[in-house]
Amino acid sequence: MNILVLTDFSDTAKNALFFGLDFAIESDATVKVLNCVSVPHSKSNLVVSILDILKQDAEKGLNDLQEEINNQNKYSSLTIEMLSSVGELNSTVQEISSQWEVDFVIMGTKGMSALEEIFVGSNTTKLINEIKLPILAIPLGANYSSIDEITFASDLVPLNTMDSLAPLKQLAEKFVNSVQLLHMHLDKRNTLEKEQKIELKAIENYLLPLQIKDVYVGHSKSSNELVNFSKLSNNVLLAMVSRKHGLFKRLFSSSNTKTVALKTAIPLLVLPEIN
Q: Domains along the chain?
């Protein structure tokens, strides 16, 4: 497994880095740590001088991180490469992924939760929309421990292809051998429509031989459903498919976002929908 960790040397990014390293130990992964320096396009001497300073700061930041990692024996078995790049973050990540098969991108999120940054923070949202790679968004309050539960939240609207769930299956097979399906309705119905039953069966078949645990039926217009569910497990990883229409966008397109953000501090796996 190959993991790309993004860092800007903030406390949030450092927390995500060490979360990612602990995750890499359990998943037997190779890690690249990327810091991307970006400045306004200009040929002025001032901008060139600023860029030189930023490059030096980036190299020092990466060296300091490497030293901190080296001082912890538990990371001695990991293969870790530090990368410094000048340019736009999204295009840099895409270039790296084209040269090196990236399985997961790990990044820290500001605020109380991954959900807050995913749906409010423009940088993270832009990254999710453009790079089309599985992203593990780690809130500052999340410390790594073995994953006990992986929850997939879905409204059972048909996916273009079940291959969008491949990273979810990969993690579940590695850590828990099961997936908890959190099904959230558009309204307050407690029964599945025919199309939803077909999609549910398709999900179950695709995830075989994984066990699908109890299906929880909630109301996708109420963020409290997601908040309450997230409290049921201490070491839960929440997974959702990012798509233009569906639960991912709808649930967090209103004031519900703030409610969820203030009450939820769990890692979020964002799966790009494959066309």
A: 2-139 (3.40.50.620), 149-272 (3.40.50.620)
